[in-house]
Amino acid sequence: MTVDTLESANLRNRMVDQLIADQAAKGLTLPASVEAALRTVPRELYAPNTPLPEAYANSAIVTKRRGEESISSVSAPFLIAEMLGQAVDALDGLKGRHVLEIGSGGYNASLLAELVGPAGSVTTVDIDPEVTDRASACLAAAGYHDVKVVCADAEHPVEPGRRYDLIIVTAGAWDIPSAWREQLTDGGVLVVPLRTFGLTRSWALRRAGQELVSHSHRQCGFVSVQGAGAHEVRYLDIADGVHLRLDEDQQVDPAMVTELMLQPRRQAWAGFSLAPRTVLADLDLWLATRLVGEADEFVILTAQEAAVESGVVAPAWRFGTPATVETGAFCYRSELLWTGQKFDVGAIAHGPHASAAAKRMVEHMRAWVEASSPSPALRVFAAQTPDGDLPAGTVLDKRHSRLVLTFTPTEEKGLS
Ligand SMILES: C[S@@+](CC[C@H](N)C(=O)[O-])C[C@H]1O[C@@H](n2cnc3c(N)ncnc32)[C@H](O)[C@@H]1O
């Protein structure tokens, strides 16, 4: 493959400069070792036939689709940078570490190879033989001959008997299979994009005995895990360009929500002036843990740009906004109300019980702000753990694990 190396290096450096600036705007710092790796590995070698500027755009490059759905991609640089940063921070560096990457493509595996150095090791596993063949070819072309590529369903142990300091999952998971915990050394770290209440966060979880305890989390989105651990996501049409995202075990009648949406809109505001850095992704998980037991269904609203522009809906974030559905009310977190540099949060509801539903959502927002905008913390236990052995918090039962979410105050207060 012929590559214009000077242009490639320039684009790569520009991409990394932008990643550093974007992370700084979020209050994050890209670890120096991750920066060095990103400046070293030519991303275009993992995206053959992609024009060079696209290979260095800050977005995923889809490499395989099933119908409309993307099932494999070279992950977006900002996500890779944030997740590698989570791993480096949680393990205090990756030099000499032994790593399992779940979901191959080659690019992230080669960054990991740079990070662990010759004393460490990287195994990458993918369920899809087309992906592993491609990843093997790309890694060989780029000169990363020591990365081991395995084709298997990573729901099960990948190299039986082996333990890793880091397992980094690069597909969206609904659950944490016991094999992921058991393949970690004690103190080892699992970085995993995990869906809880329909909201995906990349969690860095450290193993402590049979438990996993969160170290950090970031908002993210990924193609879904396939194979034995697959858990379907469904989209229901409720208006032109407006959808509800549901987990496979949730039931909502879309016609009922469509009917409710035809009724006038009620808006409620929390009544705060919040600082721009307030992490609203944390508020969304807070709302989920509070509303899930109070409304019939807690769901995620998504909308196309045209539906927002034409005023059909005014969600906080059109790619995924908390919403509740019950008899007589459909409610969601609304777009922000800006006054100068500060903003307020609010809710919109439709239906005969709209005012009560909007008021309830907004009261939970007030409680979050008054508690100093706490951040979620996650502890993961094996499925057979008895209730009495779980700590206080919101318990979410999955197939192989029991998750407990709690909220801890953040240092920076959003309230002014
Ligand atoms: C976003 S891509 C991986 C990107 C890659 N890490 C990179 O370097 O950019 C996600 C991959 O996860 C794989 N995958 C999904 N479910 C899996 C499973 N159960 N076991 C192993 N791989 C899986 C998919 O086949 C897909 O190729």
UniProtKB/TrEMBL annotation:
Can you say where in the cell this protein is located?
Cytoplasm
Keyword line:
Cytoplasm, Methyltransferase, S-adenosyl-L-methionine, Transferase
The record ties this protein, via CDD domains, to: AdoMet_MTases
Q: Which GO terms describe its biological process?
A: methylation
EC number, UniProt record: 2.1.1.77
Q: Which Pfam families would you find in this protein's record?
A: PCMT
Q: Which cellular component terms (GO) are annotated to the entry?
A: cytoplasm
Q: Name one GO molecular function term.
A: protein-L-isoaspartate (D-aspartate) O-methyltransferase activity
Q: Which NCBIfam families does the UniProt entry name for this protein?
A: methyltran_FxLD
Q: Which family does it belong to?
A: Belongs to the methyltransferase superfamily. L-isoaspartyl/D-aspartyl protein methyltransferase family.
Q: What is this protein called?
A: Protein-L-isoaspartate O-methyltransferase
The record lists the organism as Actinomadura logoneensis
